[in-house]
Amino acid sequence: MPKILLFLSFTLATHALFAQKALTKKYSSDECHCVIDNAAGVLETSQPGVYRYHSKAEFKRYLDSVKATVKGPMTELELYRKLKPLVTRIGCLHTDLITGVNYKGWLDRSPNLLPFQLYCEGSRAFVVKNYSADKSIAPGDEILAINGRSMPDVLKLLLPTIPADGYNQTMKYLALYHMFPSWYRSIIEVADTFALTVKHNSTEKVCVVPAAKKKDIAQDGFLEEFSYPKQLAFKVTGNTGFLTIHTFANSVIKKGDQRFKEFIDKTFEELQAKGIPNLVVDLRYNTGGSDVNAAYFSGFFFDEPYRYWDRIEVTDKIAKKIKGVVRIWYRKPVQQDSAWLWQKGKTVKDFDFFEVQQPSPNHYKGNVYVLINGFCMSSCADVTSVLSCHKKAVFIGEETGGGYQGNNSGLMPGVNLRPTKMVLTVPLQEYFTAVDPKVNFGRGTMPDYPVKMTVDDIVKGEDKPMEVAMELINGQSKQHDTVVMSSRTFIPAR
Asked: Which N-terminal stretch is annotated as signal sequence (predicted)?
């Protein structure tokens, strides 16, 4: 046993030493320029949506401006902070840049995180939870500055580095709500103390608090992903069904001993059998998952054939790589004018949904209310955009973080940006949802009833979007002594 402990101690010490060296190692300005050029080159030749929201000329100008800021040797973290805004500016939530795999874990073992959960609104930030020993800072207090940097300046640095589709902001602000200390550490500074300028009841004061370790402040949904015993939930209360879908990812759903199609089939069978006239679908924080599941779910809201995706495109470089043994799984992309169109897979169904889709035989005929927020993305955002386009539901909450017209995702290899340890995630397919390309361009699915999250609602634990849904349902019920499922006030039966 002592030998094992000695070995573990030696291993941990060696690991920490290597991580520390990686943090302090400097790369020459020439090496930094090469890394930036390499990242830009990979994006321009392999990521088909690089110019989806910004022109090639704009991309080049921004690239040159980033390179111009490299004046001398830089550490990996310093270079990361230069390159991250360039990668994010594309407007693709699936395109990402991360530091070396050991870097974040090494930092998490030391106290360097701001011990507060903050809610940011515009250029302001408010305390939601205080994990420090200084309890004079209360929920609802405003943080005016951190370590001498004003909150508007802090947010000007953070927001351009947080990925989202198009020009979306709701996803960025929600990411800060759940991960502000981590983003601050990655983009602004690694600090062991924080001097905070705090506004409490119109009185300003400066408080100095020590940094915290992640393990001491992380909670479910704060610096950690939400954990749910079950990813799918359904219940009926009175005249309303409540369906929650936390994810469309089969791997996660199966961990709760659930099967997506089986669960959804039973849900809609129950709705029909009981004649339930209203359905609230909670998709908030659904970050996507299986396209097969998402498309299958959409079919329960149509009574005639419909389009889900319009097409999938890839770059010329990727199209030419579909050859040899790869043809076992994938068909050769077809060129149409200057575009290369991705085809259905031979052995997988992930790319089947640009064909005409058939409605479910057990499609729902009642009123549908969908709750959305900035963490509705990827395949979840595909569902919301298709349902919104066809007026199949009333949407309540905040704009989805995933794009209304589609996204860049599919096959997403990681590219090592040598000589650093940074990895660039590059989506190889550009998806176009079958919606009006002129509607909500560069934005997500927009709510019919916008309900903005506020710090007061958070502190009080109030669920305003759900309250609005119930007000709409109750208001409609009052208009009719008998609710007729084929005659809906807000959404015509289809």
From this structure: 1-21
